[in-house]
Amino acid sequence: VSQLPAGEYLRHGQTPFFRLPQADLHSPSPYAGAGAVLLGIPYDGGTTHQPGARHAPAAIRRVSGLVHSYHPVHQVDVFRKLTAVDGGNVSLPPFDATLVRTVIQREVAQVLEAGATPFVVGGDQTVALPCLRAVAARHGPLAVVHVDAHFDTSGPEVWGDAYHHGTPLRHALTEDLIERGQLWQVGLRASWGQPEEGAFAAGYGSRQVGMEALERRSVPELLAAIRLGVGERPLYVTFDIDAVDPAFAPGTGTPVPGGLTSREALQFLRGLKGLRLVGMDVVEVCPVLDHADITSHLAAALLYEGLALRALCA
Amino acid sequence: VSQLPAGEYLRHGQTPFFRLPQADLHSPSPYAGAGAVLLGIPYDGGTTHQPGARHAPAAIRRVSGLVHSYHPVHQVDVFRKLTAVDGGNVSLPPFDATLVRTVIQREVAQVLEAGATPFVVGGDQTVALPCLRAVAARHGPLAVVHVDAHFDTSGPEVWGDAYHHGTPLRHALTEDLIERGQLWQVGLRASWGQPEEGAFAAGYGSRQVGMEALERRSVPELLAAIRLGVGERPLYVTFDIDAVDPAFAPGTGTPVPGGLTSREALQFLRGLKGLRLVGMDVVEVCPVLDHADITSHLAAALLYEGLALRALCA
Amino acid sequence: VSQLPAGEYLRHGQTPFFRLPQADLHSPSPYAGAGAVLLGIPYDGGTTHQPGARHAPAAIRRVSGLVHSYHPVHQVDVFRKLTAVDGGNVSLPPFDATLVRTVIQREVAQVLEAGATPFVVGGDQTVALPCLRAVAARHGPLAVVHVDAHFDTSGPEVWGDAYHHGTPLRHALTEDLIERGQLWQVGLRASWGQPEEGAFAAGYGSRQVGMEALERRSVPELLAAIRLGVGERPLYVTFDIDAVDPAFAPGTGTPVPGGLTSREALQFLRGLKGLRLVGMDVVEVCPVLDHADITSHLAAALLYEGLALRALCA
Amino acid sequence: VSQLPAGEYLRHGQTPFFRLPQADLHSPSPYAGAGAVLLGIPYDGGTTHQPGARHAPAAIRRVSGLVHSYHPVHQVDVFRKLTAVDGGNVSLPPFDATLVRTVIQREVAQVLEAGATPFVVGGDQTVALPCLRAVAARHGPLAVVHVDAHFDTSGPEVWGDAYHHGTPLRHALTEDLIERGQLWQVGLRASWGQPEEGAFAAGYGSRQVGMEALERRSVPELLAAIRLGVGERPLYVTFDIDAVDPAFAPGTGTPVPGGLTSREALQFLRGLKGLRLVGMDVVEVCPVLDHADITSHLAAALLYEGLALRALCA
Amino acid sequence: VSQLPAGEYLRHGQTPFFRLPQADLHSPSPYAGAGAVLLGIPYDGGTTHQPGARHAPAAIRRVSGLVHSYHPVHQVDVFRKLTAVDGGNVSLPPFDATLVRTVIQREVAQVLEAGATPFVVGGDQTVALPCLRAVAARHGPLAVVHVDAHFDTSGPEVWGDAYHHGTPLRHALTEDLIERGQLWQVGLRASWGQPEEGAFAAGYGSRQVGMEALERRSVPELLAAIRLGVGERPLYVTFDIDAVDPAFAPGTGTPVPGGLTSREALQFLRGLKGLRLVGMDVVEVCPVLDHADITSHLAAALLYEGLALRALCA
Amino acid sequence: VSQLPAGEYLRHGQTPFFRLPQADLHSPSPYAGAGAVLLGIPYDGGTTHQPGARHAPAAIRRVSGLVHSYHPVHQVDVFRKLTAVDGGNVSLPPFDATLVRTVIQREVAQVLEAGATPFVVGGDQTVALPCLRAVAARHGPLAVVHVDAHFDTSGPEVWGDAYHHGTPLRHALTEDLIERGQLWQVGLRASWGQPEEGAFAAGYGSRQVGMEALERRSVPELLAAIRLGVGERPLYVTFDIDAVDPAFAPGTGTPVPGGLTSREALQFLRGLKGLRLVGMDVVEVCPVLDHADITSHLAAALLYEGLALRALCA
Predict the structure, then answer these.
(1) Closest CA in chain B for residue C8
(2) CB contact at 8 A, B171 and B163
(3) What is the pTM of this model?
(4) Which of B111, D44, E249, F271 is 20 to 30 Å from D268 by CA-CA measure?
(5) Is the ipTM of this complex over 0.95?
(6) Is the Cβ pair F70, C245 closer than 8 Å?
(7) In sequence order, what E strands does C21-132 have?
């Protein structure tokens, strides 16, 4: 080889998340024995306002090297307890949105087939849909915790397309990837174009916790309701970094003032302890809008919280 | 026309706030039928430390396009309920401070004469004085909520001039634009040069709520006091963005650590629901110091809260 | 109206380029009488590396207000000599690349039908193809000056798609939009993946002037050759800002060190005086990567040079 | 003199902290009569990740000019009550870490000998060790409040050196500079490499208050425990700015999401009122990573709180 | 003293330019024996577009510490040959433009009375007028080299005021501060509003060298003409940093693409060797728009070139 | 393994330069068969002003992925002609400068023993000394092209230490690593502290080409002299990015205005064609001071030019 071909470069040529070993992607069963697999998805073709989330995996990989194994709150030695490997970045054709979804779903399915839990680093939130499809294909209808400033249940009339980063939850609901009443939306606060937009997910029994309600109820109270409601169901977490306030996460394409603090975000994920986490994504980090990498550091910390949840069950 | 003359460019050549229609400023009664008029005032000639607030209207106009009509907390369809129009930027001679005040006062008076509520986007806080003069001329002595890290009641001895961005509240008090006991100062925390500086406004019965007191009392408790105290009086809100902590609002010229969070700022404005809002300004946003537009996004959100208050009464 | 609908906002809600009057787009013949029409195209769906050029029209509109009418080198009063109007931004569906090209071509054709010269502000260089299609449909095969660090003649094998910002010149050549021997590529310097990539355009008689050759020959010598070669042919200029060195134009998605200086770029356009300019675009400005707007200022200056060329013939 | 020699430039050529008078360092007893002396230490040779804290004294000096004398919460006229002087920057040889520690210790000792309280502005946290040595040499074993995201008790095995910014507290404990049971560590939250790392300081009776515990207990409750526990002991505060969340303090080399807010940090220092403060440092501000100086403004505010504590006892 | 009063802080509390000793401003003849005096003028009240030049003295002071005494091209040991002292910043009332001009003129006159050459660091170019008044008062009508992208001869009709940063050369011409035919304007390139604007200075015999002419003639040829034309006359240099291209000097308020390179700027000043320099200013550096201090570094280098010219004659 | 140990992470966990394959560093002869080996050296412990060059290998690795194999000027397919591999980053103890030099020298020696040419990416210029030691140990006294704004021949009296980034050429001369008369210093322009500093290298027959001389002579003339003078000697190139003007390379710790353009820098390296290149380093890139990665892109381009020179001889 002279220079690595694109696919090879995306898979093997990336600095690993959390200084983890890389899966041997030339092996027939690259994820055998892994408890968790991290995948980067450098795709932002579904962005409606400020693109750039395609570079989030690179930025988060870089800063995640500062994270160590021992979790001081859960008191668990995450990377010694859980066999986590880096599956590299998914190799994507950037201009064919349908193919993008197919490729992502196939990659996540491969992780699940190996018995490992996928931790996906977007990219924009478009990538959540194929992840949810793969995970629901394996585990059946899911409980989904959706942390976001926005509903993400837009219809095709808004931007003239049925698929983009404002739509994954709509498809997940209509495709029955989510069990009725098991979509928990946390961090909502953006204004809407039409009064009825808020009703779509509610029509599927979604529990919607806007920031104003969260402030009245407190995070622990919310967590208690979620833990009780989800119970033994397989749980998928899709975390849009814009759920967090722009002060803590300036590096995102559609910021909305008045969001979660970094501490609330971490506390929230820690409080999911005991639930059966079967997959997670962190999306919408846009490094070119970040400052001093604080958004990427936070995204790495959120992923680490997810991995810690998984390690507690390992 | 080849190129628009300066005045025309400032009035008709600006991207509208919140994607609103522009008032037809060539008409004899441009604001007829409007419930609210937004005016940009690109003036920062009264800045003592870091200038640049003259560019705030442009920045806030640009990002405010992301705000939609339906308010999820108040459950009001703001721009369908309230006829809001953009009056463009006020055309100012930049080097004659006295004339600047005259022009602003005249423009705001024109809005009021049309029966509309003025929402003013500074500029530095110098612009609050002519706004208050115009509003008080119409409504009589006002109740004023002044959200700020600083008193803004400096005397001429400090900078050798009686008028600049540290003085508008002093003039408003001495000119009886504010009803005695009806100045509510929230967010105060900057250190002072002389012990007695804090006493000026207090001498007029001002209620001063420093950050440390706010923390002890909570925002809802403060709001209850303000609602009770203001009652049916006409209320003007002047919001200096430096009341908010620099983490949430780095784009301002005289930042003071330890301020409001974005959520407290939004919650505070929402809590004025029910009061009779007759005018509002948001000032001291300095875009050149901002990062990823987070300060401008917040300023747009604060204006939207003011408009929502007005819509609730429409 | 409460808030402007998207299309209306893109057309009428933008700060005008160069403080020009806006075309009345509600009129049946909005461009009647215009000598030049400026169009923004906020599209970057064809970007392979760092997206964000969708925000270039807004940034260039904003800074172009500092440009005045009288051109000191050509000694022409550009905006008094030439009736230039702002046609707003083209309203695009962001996720359907085929439709995007159709819409752009239709808009540019409308400008041409009115007898005006289109000046297009991208967006990524994908937008050059539909512009070339519209202009060639009216004027026949064109002479094209292509200022760029890259060939932009990639085939579908590189990114798995026949249309993106690395391909417009390939299509323009194969569709005979360019007269054989009349593609002038200036500023080339990026390394290539395969030796044969350089041969594609050359096979159509393209004249390729890499930076190293330009340095040996000087800009005036190059201009003499172009003027002689183009003669009376209709000339289209497509200017990728990455032709300029990153020091002068940091705000672009695929920077290549060693490019044109700002003075060479301006001198080059000035030297096209006397040729028959029938259209021009400036593309690949990515504001989020810019600093102190220097790239946007340069892009505005380049557009102004194009307008001056057109004014000289008006 | 033509240009000032390096040492002279560092001592006399710096803009003074808080607009204070400079000590006459050519006098034999430069600090005579001073109640507090501020010293800048432009050293970051002990940084493990992102260096640059050497420029913190310059940045904090610059912004501290905005701080005024009267403290609105403590209601004390700080700089009129307390005679504070600026001792300039310590003149350091940048490449000899052992000599650096010696020089710092000597300078701080000189301040103490004059009966003044040292307020030290790092530099990285390496500088805390020689400060503690000097202060303990005068006052005996100390009570130390260590505000930090990290333990700073690393052993030599981590980076192959016994002295760097991750080690000062280890040395302070082993050298008995801190009274057993009197190390109060606040703000801890970073993950560790090995489970046992948390145990080192605990083995010396350190009280460790991680962010998660702080959230459960509240700052006032923590302060009550510290005030009770410290009592009449001489108290030294070493404040690593990374204890604060990156949203409020992005300008630091090893940021950890989930930290103190600026208000908690200020409230915490205010709550030490009544204790016997014998020295303080603020370290790890890295201006090149800061935005709009917000980290430097906060560091200046923290120093001012320390000075106010000292003024209350003056 | 508790905190230094404003005036004292501006004069004695600044990091000195080039690590020079500070003049003892409490002495009755503070500049006695000095060959050159550097003065900062933190004023930008005459800015028409982006203010912030008030902070230039602080930024240039800071970076000028990296400049050493020995000049490698002129082979002169600048600060050993020339007794240069720092006169601090001029203490200005920020809101009274007339008084500002008076104070500046008085300060510069004081330098001249001591027999020293003033080197002034703006501030916006408004400050050039009082400098020219003071220098012409002492030396009679001057030869002036004006390096700038703009004419700076605007009349009061443009911004409604006769005095601001676009006017100093107009006043200097009409007040006969400049000998007829001895205004040399270099770097001109900005477009104008009206064709006749270029004629004002030309009517006084000004020699105007636009960038396009400079490119044709070369810097050495231009210098030969200036040296010949100026001869033994007293020469004042006013250097607006926007003469330099934004790539080399992004930190300025009204950037114009296509300017001098840093090397041309330095070469130009070096080429004034042998002329009788009686004063110089460097203006319009706006640090908040700068990146990595490159504009401030260049401004310091330009001042150093001026000092070297003076040292050659010392 | 849970997380990679530090050494392993530095060697195998880095995104490869230029998308090259990584050497198998677990093999006994990792560089067997390679024509060129790239090594990152993340060390900046020898920096006197602004540190941060330790992060240059990561930044340059990241952007170098945009460079392709075929060189359009030399018309050589670099990475197909030359077997280049990535040797990872050298694993360094950050606080022991002596050990750092030993480790670097050993690593470079290992590359040379395998018959490959080392291409080293600093770090600060301290790293050039051990590289020169290793290369001279193999090839005997070298011809050295030193591109830099500074002499780098400081003695220990300047910063109190004999080894830092201002000293490597002094040691290289005194240790006879460089053949007498074969040090070619290009780009010099910084002012010096003492007149005699320029004489040190000259005393060893160094040819010093300051920027001012370069401008008079042109790059091709200089290259002719170097080619003639070096002849068949083994040539080492040490390239300090601060030789380039800050406009093109803002990301460096001690910028000096008036340097090389990016085109001159590239042209200069291309002109070394035909000489026997035995090693090269590119140093002093400081990413935290960079903007839009333009300095890193340039550094990658300079390395690519070096690799192309080597490929031409492969």
Answers:
(1) B19
(2) yes
(3) 0.98
(4) D44
(5) yes
(6) no
(7) 36-40, 70-71, 76-77, 84-89, 117-121
